[in-house]
Design a protein that fits this description.
Strand content: under 5%
Helix content: over 70%
Radius of gyration: 15 Å
Largest sheet: none
Distance between the termini: 10 Å
Number of strands: 0
Oligomer: single chain
Number of domains: 1
Structural class: mainly alpha
């Protein structure tokens, strides 16, 4: 179950990052509320995952999911620039996530 919590926490990290962008510096109420709720839920799920998963692996995977997910959201939804270098960087993060999962004892 810890891995499920961790993946959900990572997805919520993507949601709060996108909502924060939509809040325009916390000047829009609904996106600001979504940001706060998703942040709290994400950290709560991370804490639940940390009951059994190693800190270093769990934290790196959590931030990696958030980083790659927000990278994709930025390109697909926000129209941010796409380049092969950025794709390579995201691929390296994904590779690191996979290796951390393989190396994790839980």
């Amino acid at each position: 179950m810890a891995w499920v919590y961790l993946v959900l926490a990572g997805i919520l990290e993507i949601i709060w990052a996108y909502a924060m962008k939509q809040s325009v510096g916390f000047t829009r109420l609904v996106p600001s509320i979504v940001t706060a709720v998703a942040m709290i839920a994400s950290i709560g799920l991370l804490a639940m995952a940390l009951r059994t998963l190693p800190l270093g692996s769990a934290y790196a995977i959590w931030t990696g999911i958030g980083a790659v997910g927000t990278f994709v959201v930025g390109i697909v939804i926000l129209g941010e620039p796409f380049s092969l270098i950025r794709l390579l960087a995201a691929s390296l993060i994904i590779g690191g996530i996979i290796l951390l999962k393989i190396a994790s004892p839980s």
